[in-house]
Specification:
155 residues, alpha+beta, Thiol Ester Dehydrase, Chain A, 25% helix, globular
Length: 155
């Protein structure tokens, strides 16, 4: 179970001399998908520009499970999400749509940051409510098995 975030077709400029997606572009695809989620929580690019509040990734764990090639379409799924007062912990999967094979996973720990002070900051009430509502609405779709960054949230 999971939450659909986005779909992406693998571009030729993202492939390498092995004729498959270069490892750097797996992370790029996940990052672009995560931006979709950040917008739901009023923490994306627009928020950074208008409120001076943003998020910054501080730790990741990525797996490369099955190669994808130019022209393949992948689906990005959010499989876990939680937060504390200052941190976001989440995991996403990349699934090759035609074969339904797991291509890659990424687990991230991200901090909420006041860009004007360049310091970690607590989520305000509005963002906390958005985060909590999303979790309550989707928690039955999340799985916490095989998480590598557990224990990083301070609850």
């Amino acid at each position: 179970m999971s939450v659909h975030v986005s779909d992406q077709i693998i571009k030729s400029e993202w492939t390498d001399y092995n004729n498959h997606l270069n490892m750097a572009y797996y992370v790029l695809i996940f990052d672009v998908a995560w931006e979709v989620m950040l917008k739901k929580f009023n923490m994306g690019e627009q928020s950074a520009k208008t409120s001076g509040m943003s998020t910054m990734v501080v730790e990741t764990n990525t797996t490369y499970d099955s190669e994808v090639k130019e022209g393949d379409e992948v689906e990005i799924l959010l499989t876990f999400f939680d937060h504390d007062k200052k941190r976001l912990h989440f995991k996403m999967e990349m699934i090759e749509k035609k074969t339904k094979k797991l291509s890659s996973t990424i687990e991230m720990l991200s901090l909420h940051v006041d860009l004007n002070k360049r310091k970690v900051a607590e989520f305000d009430e509005e963002r906390t409510k958005l985060l909590d509502d999303f979790i309550n609405e989707n928690k039955s779709k999340f799985k916490s098995d095989n998480l590598k960054l557990t224990g990083k949230l301070k609850k």
